[in-house]
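Hi R.,

Here's the chain you asked about this morning:
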Amino acid sequence: MPEIVTKPRTKTRPKIERPKLYKVILLNDDFTPREFVVTVLKGEFKLSEDQARRVMITAHQRGVCVVAVFTRDVAETKATRATDAGKAKGYPLMFTTEPEE
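And here is the predicted structure, written out as tokens:
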């Protein structure tokens, strides 16, 4: 009688990496009105009035401030839309993105 050999089935799950995150950074300028910056932060990044004011003041005092962290596509889209809102009003408001470490 032949001997039956059974092998255990191994399930292989592909390891899924989390997407790399990117910081959206507000750059200070001395021309864009503070209230406009707060309005953009509230509208685009859904910050509260208090959070938006703190981000704006931090950028004003230090020159830059991290607004939020998102996946690359979301970060770039939000930074572009916020920068474009400033350009539409004639202000040099600038947001950039960079990889989070």
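One quick note: Helices lie at 34-45, 49-62, 72-88.

Cheers,
M.
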